[in-house]
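As the next step, I wrote out a protein sequence along with its fold in C-alpha coordinate form, included below for the reader:
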Amino acid sequence: MKNVLGVAAVVLGLLAGCGVQPDAGNEYVGKWDGVNNKSSMVIERNGSSFMIRYTGPGMIGELETKNFPGMLKDGLLQMTREGFPVPLAIDKASGNLTDGDHEFKRAN
Protein backbone atom coordinates (compact mmCIF):
# COMPACT_ATOMS: atom_id res chain seq x y z
CA MET A 1 0.00 0.00 0.00
CA LYS A 2 2.89 2.37 0.78
CA ASN A 3 4.33 1.74 -2.68
CA VAL A 4 1.02 2.57 -4.38
CA LEU A 5 0.72 5.84 -2.44
CA GLY A 6 4.35 6.70 -3.18
CA VAL A 7 3.92 6.08 -6.89
CA ALA A 8 0.69 8.10 -6.93
CA ALA A 9 2.42 11.03 -5.21
CA VAL A 10 5.26 10.97 -7.74
CA VAL A 11 2.85 10.80 -10.70
CA LEU A 12 0.76 13.71 -9.36
CA GLY A 13 3.92 15.75 -8.81
CA LEU A 14 5.07 15.11 -12.37
CA LEU A 15 1.68 16.00 -13.82
CA ALA A 16 1.53 19.22 -11.83
CA GLY A 17 4.98 20.21 -13.08
CA CYS A 18 4.10 19.67 -16.74
CA GLY A 19 1.30 22.19 -17.02
CA VAL A 20 1.41 25.98 -17.03
CA GLN A 21 1.52 27.25 -13.48
CA PRO A 22 -1.54 29.38 -12.58
CA ASP A 23 0.63 32.31 -11.46
CA ALA A 24 2.99 32.15 -14.46
CA GLY A 25 3.20 35.61 -16.01
CA ASN A 26 2.02 37.50 -12.92
CA GLU A 27 5.14 39.67 -13.12
CA TYR A 28 3.69 41.27 -16.28
CA VAL A 29 0.24 42.06 -14.88
CA GLY A 30 -0.37 45.71 -14.00
CA LYS A 31 0.01 49.21 -15.38
CA TRP A 32 3.21 50.25 -17.15
CA ASP A 33 4.09 53.84 -18.14
CA GLY A 34 6.41 54.79 -20.99
CA VAL A 35 9.88 55.84 -19.85
CA ASN A 36 10.61 58.28 -22.70
CA ASN A 37 7.16 58.84 -24.17
CA LYS A 38 3.50 59.32 -23.28
CA SER A 39 2.50 55.74 -23.99
CA SER A 40 1.33 53.21 -21.42
CA MET A 41 0.25 49.59 -21.19
CA VAL A 42 -2.17 47.81 -18.94
CA ILE A 43 -1.66 44.06 -18.88
CA GLU A 44 -4.51 41.94 -17.51
CA ARG A 45 -5.23 38.25 -17.24
CA ASN A 46 -7.79 37.07 -19.79
CA GLY A 47 -8.60 33.51 -18.78
CA SER A 48 -5.48 31.44 -19.51
CA SER A 49 -4.04 34.21 -21.69
CA PHE A 50 -3.56 37.98 -21.35
CA MET A 51 -5.03 41.20 -22.71
CA ILE A 52 -2.60 44.05 -23.37
CA ARG A 53 -4.20 47.49 -23.59
CA TYR A 54 -1.68 49.82 -25.23
CA THR A 55 -2.30 53.58 -25.16
CA GLY A 56 -0.11 55.77 -27.33
CA PRO A 57 -0.11 58.41 -30.05
CA GLY A 58 -2.35 57.55 -32.96
CA MET A 59 -2.16 58.59 -36.60
CA ILE A 60 -3.03 62.23 -35.87
CA GLY A 61 -1.05 62.45 -32.65
CA GLU A 62 -3.92 62.05 -30.20
CA LEU A 63 -3.69 59.23 -27.65
CA GLU A 64 -5.67 56.14 -28.52
CA THR A 65 -5.98 52.73 -26.91
CA LYS A 66 -5.62 49.45 -28.78
CA ASN A 67 -6.15 45.97 -27.33
CA PHE A 68 -3.82 43.11 -28.19
CA PRO A 69 -4.07 39.45 -27.15
CA GLY A 70 -1.06 38.04 -25.34
CA MET A 71 0.21 34.66 -24.22
CA LEU A 72 3.27 33.23 -22.52
CA LYS A 73 5.78 31.63 -24.86
CA ASP A 74 9.16 30.37 -23.66
CA GLY A 75 8.83 32.39 -20.45
CA LEU A 76 8.14 35.70 -22.22
CA LEU A 77 4.84 37.46 -22.71
CA GLN A 78 4.15 37.68 -26.42
CA MET A 79 1.54 39.90 -28.02
CA THR A 80 0.41 39.91 -31.63
CA ARG A 81 0.55 43.37 -33.21
CA GLU A 82 -0.47 43.84 -36.84
CA GLY A 83 -0.18 40.10 -37.37
CA PHE A 84 3.38 39.82 -36.03
CA PRO A 85 4.49 38.37 -32.69
CA VAL A 86 6.09 40.95 -30.37
CA PRO A 87 7.85 39.55 -27.28
CA LEU A 88 7.73 41.59 -24.08
CA ALA A 89 10.48 41.11 -21.52
CA ILE A 90 11.23 42.52 -18.09
CA ASP A 91 14.83 43.71 -17.79
CA LYS A 92 16.08 42.18 -14.54
CA ALA A 93 18.57 45.04 -14.03
CA SER A 94 16.05 47.90 -14.23
CA GLY A 95 12.74 46.13 -13.65
CA ASN A 96 11.42 47.86 -16.77
CA LEU A 97 9.33 46.18 -19.45
CA THR A 98 10.49 46.41 -23.08
CA ASP A 99 9.16 45.41 -26.47
CA GLY A 100 12.51 46.12 -28.10
CA ASP A 101 11.51 49.60 -29.30
CA HIS A 102 9.94 51.11 -26.16
CA GLU A 103 10.59 50.88 -22.45
CA PHE A 104 7.97 51.00 -19.70
CA LYS A 105 8.26 51.31 -15.92
CA ARG A 106 5.78 49.79 -13.51
CA ALA A 107 3.14 52.33 -12.43
CA ASN A 108 1.55 50.26 -9.65
Notes: Strands lie at 30-34, 40-46, 49-57, 63-73, 76-81, 84-90, 97-98, 103-106. The chain is about 15% helix and 45% strand. Residues 2-18 form the longest helix (17 residues). The chain has one domain: 26-106.
